[in-house]
Amino acid sequence: MGNTLLEYATRIFALSEAAERELTELAGLTAGQLLIGASATVGVYLVPAVIAQFNVLFPKVTVELTVANTEQVEQGLLAHAFGLGFIEGPYDAAVFDANVIGADEIIAVAAVGHPLAKRRFAARELADKAVILREPGSGTRAAVEDAYKRAGLSMTPLMSVSHTEAIKRMLLSGQAIAYVSSLSVAEEIARGDLVRLKVIGVDITRLLHVVWLKGRSFAPSTEAFVKLFDEQFPPRFSSVIVR
Q: What pTM value is reported for the model?
């Protein structure tokens, strides 16, 4: 009983804070706070550029960005810790409203000197290799596991790592392979530090979404941010596909 009351009290307090933020903004974007939760791929490689432009246009609106995995972003929206979320992959349409903001390809990558770097090979060959994936709850990991399952294969990673930058450092210093967003390694591939592996039998593309609680109206700052994001990355946007 006590836990239930605490949960309701916490939810009511969060709703009260959200309402106060929206009321502050009704007179225009001269004040206010925008709380954004974003999964790693979108939060690191897309959202920051939009925040920078938003700050120029609306310098008196405070923006707080929390980068987490998809599951954590959804939990934050439910707890009213975020007014807006950016996630990778599917979402619960019974709970959230969403717009597609683009598409992203997940690719297998390794250091240029890796034994598999210069030949094509079947996805099943990775079953006994040192493969690194993102942590459980990550949209990237869920997409990889789902793609392998649909192909009748399983993927048991050597390790799970919660930060893509840490994964890239591991690849550069060893003989591991990782499945990551093509957005996250475009620069390393262009420089020749990493190479996209030619995996046959599994193609992994997922949609990127902006999500919010079903039935909830946008605060002025939220509406302005979503509009600005659409201007910079129209729905036709897709990630840099590195062949």
A: 0.80
